[in-house]
Every structure is written in C-alpha cells, then in structure tokens.
Amino acid sequence: MNSFSLELLSATEQRRVDGVTSFVGEDASGSFGILAGHTRTIAPLLFGLARFRRGNEQWQYLALPGGLLYFLDNHLQIFTRRFLIDADYARISALLQQQLLAEEQRLVETKESLARMEESMLRRLWELSRE
Asked: CB neighbours of 20 closer than 8 A, spacing ≥ 6?
C-alpha cells in the first residue's frame, strides 16, 4: 500500500507520522482527501477536525485552529499554532471545544485590545497635533 509522511509543525511542538495512507481535511471550498502520489497541494485549513490513517489502522483525529497544508513528493506538512491528536472522536471533540476555542477567544480579545490601543494612540496624536 502506498503511503506518505505527515509532519505537524506548531509553535511549541513538532511531530512526524510515517506510513500515512489517507488524509482528510477541510478548506473554504469543503472537505478534500489526499492519498500517496497526490499532486502538489497548498491549502489553508479551517478551524476544526481533520483526520488521517496509517494502513488499515483506525482514523486518528487532528484538532487544529486552522493552518496551512503543503503536500509535495509524498510529504505532507501542516503548519499551525497548535494541534491535538486522538483516536477517540468524542474525546478530541471535547478537547477542541475546551482548549482550542478558549485559545481562539483569547486571540480575539487580544486583537480587540490592540485595536483599542491603536485608536487611543491615534486620538492622542490627533489631540497633540491640534495643540
């Protein structure tokens, strides 16, 4: 059975899985699959679950807050801020809800805070220019 390698790269962790025979992910156009020998592919992955399998083993679920997928020469790389892997769909779904959604909320709050700071600085610069 033909296979490829999967390399997961995040800010804090790196993991390589050899012998992957199938990968299923999702981008803005919908779900897609990758098998060994697939053409060169680059895709922005959405927040949620992807999955992969080695041979006839059970599916492994991959939770991620979005990322970039790159496939070339039977080597699949996924670049993301964070990822979780588990064979139990229910368990990883719960982890996705708890951990990754909390992280996304913190990022939204940080972006809002930065926007408020920028607005405050611009207002202050405008006030200084009027004086």
From this structure: 3, 4, 5, 6, 52, 53, 54, 76
